[in-house]
Amino acid sequence: MKIGRTDTMLIINAAKIYNPDGEEKQVAIHIDNGIIKKITDVLDDDTNENIIDLKGAYITPGFIEPSCSIGVSEQIYRFEGNDANETSSPILPGLRAIDAINPLDEGFKMALASGITTVITGPGDANVIGGTFAAMKTAGKNLDDMIIEPEIAMKFVFGNAPKAYYKKSGNMPGTRMAIAYLIRENLIRAKEYKRAKELAKNDSKNIQKFDMHLESLSKVFDGMQVKITAHQDYDIETAIRIAKEFDLNFVIDRCTEGYRIPELLKDLNIIAAGPIYGGKRIHEIRNRDPILGKVFESNEIDFCLSTGHPSTNIDMNILQAIMMIDKGLSKKTALKAMTINAAKCVGLEERIGSIEIGKEADIVVWDSEPFDYYSFVDRVFINGNEVYRREES
């Protein structure tokens, strides 16, 4: 099914927008060309074929996965479908995830069944600088149908993963010092490349030799977001220090031990936290704890939730939120973490992340209260098109 915006008017009627801390009022959502045009009182009209009557079912905005490798590392996750880590060099900013995404990856079906309508997908954690992420919807007959932004952010990684890949071969980085060095060195080179390129525009004798990797990395000095993977508290501190040193537009991803250093995170715009669900099989995530949500909320740190799929299956995103709620996070903040905060995290809040006039009609219908352990996604709409319906067993 094509996920381009529908040409016809659609009205989702008698929908109860899930509002954990407010009045649960039923409304009619009027959609035209894939965009929410108005929200009115419930309509009493059973003759209009464009009306879908939900009979008071809960709806939420489509959930957003802000940092994963879906379609790049396929769900089956064997060699043939794993293209997340190009380990020929630790510094590869010229790579683009969009060139490796399989839109038929089974992970997209899992995403839809759990209410996730948008994903930010990119390289894995092997490289210090791994290339760019793409933003995409989770349904469509081909990649062009699904892509929102082909290059939305650049990937940096701090911590043990790059060490594990490169130290055994005797190459850098073998230490955290080397990771920081490589990032600084290449940011300086990219800044100089950009400066020389600007000078060359006005001097025909000064020709700047093209460099694909530096060309790509220099975009971070034009405002491209840098998504920085860092789990442990001292890696998070180093990441923040370097990002501020170069005045980068950055987000800390994973942030597993962020609950231990909330005072250092308060002045950041937003955190992409998680996965906090799953085993503690490696050193960096041995201290993962769902208490992170409560700590961030009590310290007024804005955050969104990520599974890092396939590190943790993408359909576990709602379970992560429920686990955080069990540890004291409010349902209101949990919902924001999966919707509008996740949209803000990647600069898409004007398009998605809430059910508002003027936004894309990405809507999830639930069979019961969404944060109930036993709730199911009944239907999913993307750009006003129904793209998923649960089969009754």
Structure description:
- With 393 residues, the chain is of the alpha/beta class.
- It is 25% helix and 24% strand.
- The protein contains eleven helices and 16 strands.
- It has helices at residues 106-113, 143-146, 160-166, 176-201, 212-217, 233-245, 262-265, 291-298, 317-326, 331-338, 340-345; strands at residues 9-17, 26-32, 35-40, 51-53, 58-61, 63-68, 116-121, 129-137, 147-157, 225-230, 250-254, 271-273, 303-305, 363-366, 377-382, 385-389.
- Helix 4 (176-201) runs parallel beside helix 6 (233-245) and helix 9 packs antiparallel against helix 10 (331-338).
- The longest helix is centred in the middle third of the chain and has 26 residues, at 176-201.
- The protein is globular, with a radius of gyration of 22 Å.
- The relative contact order is 0.17.
- The mean pLDDT is 94.
